[in-house]
Specification:
By secondary structure, the protein is of the alpha/beta class. The protein has 10 helices and 10 strands. The structure holds nicotinamide-adenine-dinucleotide. Nicotinamide-adenine-dinucleotide (NAD) binds next to helix 9.
């Protein structure tokens, strides 16, 4: 199964489908990520705050997969904003991952109250120049945060990783991303199981029509919208199922019907409220 790649604005490419490890227990991470790599995933999304970078690193080392076939993302956490602290945080993440570089380093949340995200962003530019990360981007950035770092730096973020699922479709940021050449990554693509996404008629009917699961339909909706997506599961069966989304295609009508589920419903925190 070949996962499509998406071109980023810095000349690199990213596998459109990956595996996310938020809330994957640190002790179970090596096994679960090993499962994902065996299934065929080559893109892993972790973060310093998930506490499981070391497990991701062990799975990578044990896999024997050449480094240049893997795409690894990690993130700078809220208490590490600033210049020297961001440099130190990146070094610590690389040490835990046991890697020389990551493919993508993100500012996890803007923490606008600290007023340090611009310093962090300028530091990420330097970390990229130093070869510690191939690409740099942000997460949970609103338009105003993006405008500020774009105006004050030489780099448009390669991605903004934001909460995005059918009931919270983020049309404005997707449109803005398309205008400036910034890709959108979805977190919580299955709504984190916090509302009955799978019971929505638009999802259930498409699943029945294609003989696939509602989760596969939801992931496919992201893929056909050009969004980068990395659903999480602890179960090997679901990890495999979520990867098996390239054998069917949602029709224009099915896509439109799922688009109709957008009702501005967040399941996670508003970035303005994250201290
Ligand atoms: P998700 O929407 O991927 O939902 C995960 C939950 O969906 C699982 O716990 C499981 O219960 C269920 N699930 C998964 N596959 C299923 C299947 N096939 N059938 C039925 N149920 C299934 O939520 P997420 O893990 O929060 O988001 C994905 C990834 O996004 C994370 O692992 C992480 O890498 C990233 N993330 C980033 C941020 C951020 O602030 N940048 C925040 C949250 C998550």
């Amino acid at each position: 199964m070949t996962v499509p790649t998406i071109s980023l604005n810095d000349g690199t490419t990213i596998p459109q489908l990956g595996f996310g490890v938020f809330k994957v227990d640190p002790d179970a991470t090596e096994r679960i990520v090993s499962d994902a790599l065996e299934v065929g995933y080559r893109h892993i999304d972790t973060a310093a705050i998930y506490g499981n970078e070391a497990g991701v690193g062990k799975a990578i080392a044990a896999s024997g997969i050449p480094r240049d076939e893997l795409y690894i993302t990690t993130k700078l956490y809220n208490n590490d904003h600033g210049t020297q602290s961001a440099i130190d945080a990146m070094d610590l993440s690389l040490e835990k991952l046991d890697l020389d570089y990551v493919n993508l380093y993100l500012i996890h949340w803007p923490r606008a109250d600290l007023d340090l995200y611009l310093d962090s962003w300028l530091t990420l530019e330097q970390l990229k120049a130093d070869g510690k990360t191939r690409s740099i981007g942000v997460s949970n950035f609103h338009r105003a945060h993006l405008d500020r770092i774009i105006a004050a730096s030489d780099t448009i973020p390669a991605v903004d990783q934001i909460e995005l699922h059918p009931a919270f479709a983020q049309r404005e940021l997707r449109q803005f991303g398309a205008e400036i050449g910034m890709q959108i990554e979805a977190w919580g693509p299955l709504g984190q199981g916090k509302y009955d996404l799978f019971g929505e008629t638009a999802i259930a009917a498409a699943a029945a029509a294609h003989g696939v699961s509602p989760a596969q339909v939801a992931i496919r909706w992201h893929i056909q919208n050009g969004i980068i997506v990395f659903p999480k599961s602890n179960s090997r069966e679901r990890v495999a199922q979520n990867f098996d989304v390239f054998g069917f295609e949602l029709t224009t009508e099915q896509m439109a019907s799922i688009d109709g589920l957008d009702r501005g419903q967040r399941v996670g925190a508003n970035p303005d409220d994250v201290p």
